[in-house]
Automatic annotation (TrEMBL):
Pfam families: Glyoxalase (PF00903)
Residue ranges annotated for the VOC domain, each copy included: 11-127, 168-281
GO terms, molecular function: catechol 2,3-dioxygenase activity
Annotated EC: 1.13.11.2
Native source organism of the sequence: Peribacillus huizhouensis
Protein name (record): Catechol 2,3-dioxygenase
Amino acid sequence: MEKFHQKPITFVGEVSINVMELERAITFYQEIIGLQVLERTDRKAVLTTDGKTPLLTLEQPTDVIPKEGRTSGLYHFALLLPTRADLSVFLRHLLQTGYRFGASDHYVSEALYISDPDGNGIEIYWDRPSSEWTWADGEVAMATEPLDGESLLAESNAEWSGLPADTLMGHIHLHVADLQKTDEFYVKGLGFTVVNRFGGALFTSTGGYHHHIGLNTWNGVGVPAPKKNSVGLNWYTLVFADEEARNKVIEQLQQIGAIVTQVNGVFVTADPSGNEIHLVI
């Protein structure tokens, strides 16, 4: 894999979501997605692929309510596989389980889309080599075209045995209420670059990636944030190269009027639509 998810680049590391029933969610994420349980308590499970790095945390709030429609929050989180062969194996596994999914070719990547039993969106993808991406005027060409499933299946006939150990949280895609305020927060505040704009969406990254964070108003302009106990996003982490890089971003956030607090030693902020972000090193 290329170096879009390591220092000095700022990238998404881990995502935390609420689910209705923890046990059911764990079963789904193990048997359909192929993650492993790293730690668990009665109401929380931390999932991994390499046995040590948290990628996804599932939580079941005591008074949990189903996913609300037409709010800001999670559109999908995206797990990045190392190779096309890995995606081929995953596609065959999905076909064998009979679980419903969608598929797209985005030019920069090939992707499969699933929802968990509670409606949390998941993308599983691999990146084409960055040398094959097309850039013009600072924008990367991306589209949503039909995926060539036959070609993908022909890539590998290996048995599925869960997600590869070096699977990463490739990106996150969020519903937001206002693109202008969102643009200011992610660009002037967090220091990301807009690499593509189309149809009510912004795609932002650092280090020349096609996107670490996608942001859209497809649930409607001005939508409210979901309730804290609703199924959906709790928070996601942005991983900084070092303390200096994080301090610079905290300063930039404060300059645009964003609030950064420290909770149990973690620096926490939220975008203008209420999506919570943990700033980690």
